[in-house]
Amino acid sequence: MAHAYHDIAFTETIKALQEQQGSRASYARFEDAPQRGEKIGQNEAAFISARDSFYMASTSETGWPYMQHRGGPEGFMRVIDEGTLGFADFAGNRQYVTLGNLRGDDRVSLFFMDYANRTRLKVFGRAEVVDPSDTETLEKLAVPGYRARVERGMLIRVSAFDWNCQQHITPRYTEAQVAQVVEKLTQRVADLEAQLNAGGT
């Protein structure tokens, strides 16, 4: 299959279901196209670097999927190269579910969301835990000025990615995005008040 993400996600069972539901033909056309969705390009790198959170799924030894939210300053997920992502693993609630899951199965699925622009990027990859003793790698993942204890690092070897449709993504805005709009409105009100006061003197 020419689309790396579909090659992983679309098992024979899923293809059969697509056929039953009438969507198989629209996806099958990718099979004759040049291979894509394997290497992180400029668009993907810029999108990932602008995110302040993402979701990561792993699978337990009993087969249960586990979804975790990871957050930090904008750009805390680093694009190391066209095939590797990485981030500093900040101390959290100390459950270590994802960390434990990765000992049995290193496969992960990531969702990067831009709610304001109703855009999402999905990534399949294999996770590698970076030990605190690997200071050289951790320095690449460091977030200067962010007050959080780094327990370890994680590298994600990208297997495939796909941009998903915007359908049913409800727009949401960060505090910083709202502040930018409010600042412009506040300045506009101040300008108008100044004009009124100038006209009344």
Quickly describe the structure.
It contains seven helices and seven strands, in the order ααααββββαββαβα. The chain is of the alpha+beta class. A hairpin with a 2-residue loop joins β3 (78-81) and β4 (84-90).
Radius of gyration: 22 Å
Shape: globular
What is the multimeric organization of the chains shown? single chain
State the end-to-end distance: 74 Å
Number of strands: 7
List segments where confidence is low: pLDDT < 50 over at least 5 consecutive residues.
none
Q: Could you tell me the strand content as a percent range?
A: 25-35%
**What does the average pLDDT come to?**
91
Helix amount, in percent?
25-40%
By secondary-structure content and strand pairing, the structural class works out as alpha+beta
> Spatial order of the strands in the main sheet?
2-1-5-6-7-4-3
List SSEs in N-to-C order.
Answer: HHHHEEEEHEEHEH
Q: What characterizes the major β-sheet?
A: 7 strands, antiparallel
Individual helix count: 7
Task: Draw up the topology in text.
Layout: H1 4-9, H2 12-21, H3 24-28, H4 42-49, E1 53-59, E2 65-71, E3 78-81, E4 84-90, H5 97-104, E5 107-114, E6 119-130, H6 135-141, E7 150-164, H7 175-200
Antiparallel strand pairs: 1-2, 1-5, 3-4, 4-7, 5-6, 6-7
